[in-house]
Write a sequence for this structure.
């Protein structure tokens, strides 16, 4: 399926916390060209190593709700007690410029975008199992025990919702899962090409 070469494709990458969305997205961007990552706004505090304007736009709840009230979000949701949202203007600017856009968002947001932009491509990153997901969350050690319990509870619901996505990638190994992601993304837009691998 090849789309208009003058307009980008909107890819929505989703899945439970700890499934490996961020890692696979980083590998994707190293391997292909002519795609951009749309940075979401969030009210949650930065994790170690996260940079404002690079990983997220970190804003307070008051500022976030002003953007909601003025209708500037393509999607927004409350997840694990914090708000997350994608600004429409950021996405549309890139798509109109011919660049494909990758959003890394939660399942609620993915559902909103599919309703508003039915031509978007939804990709669900699924862990091999819930016990493996729990191991990954514990090993990254970025959440408290109560946050971890909440994330695992939400993960069960999100995995049940995965059948609504066009593509499901089981992240049982980074090499295989990243190759599958690259293949899916390239299949939708002939402008997206693999970068030459330096030896």
């Amino acid at each position: 399926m090849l789309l208009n070469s003058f307009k980008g494709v909107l890819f929505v990458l989703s899945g439970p916390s700890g499934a490996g969305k961020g890692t696979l997205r980083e590998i994707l961007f190293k391997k292909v060209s002519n795609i951009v990552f749309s940075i979401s706004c969030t009210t949650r505090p930065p994790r170690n190593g996260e940079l404002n304007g690079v990983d997220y736009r970190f804003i307070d709840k008051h500022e976030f709700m002003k953007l909601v009230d003025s209708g500037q979000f393509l999607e927004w949701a409350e997840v694990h007690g914090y708000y997350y949202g994608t600004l429409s203007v950021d996405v549309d600017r890139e798509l109109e410029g011919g660049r494909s856009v990758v959003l890394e968002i939660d399942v609620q947001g993915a559902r909103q975008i599919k309703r508003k932009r039915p031509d978007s491509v939804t990709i669900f990153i699924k862990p091999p199992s819930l016990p493996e997901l729990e191991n990954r969350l514990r090993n990254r050690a970025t959440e408290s025990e109560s946050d971890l319990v909440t994330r695992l509870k939400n993960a069960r619901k999100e995995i049940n919702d995965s059948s609504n996505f066009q593509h499901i990638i089981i992240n049982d190994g980074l090499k295989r899962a990243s190759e599958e992601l690259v293949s899916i993304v390239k299949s939708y837009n002939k402008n997206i090409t693999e970068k030459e691998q330096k030896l």
Remarks:
- The longest helix spans residues 145-160.
- The longest strand covers residues 73-79.
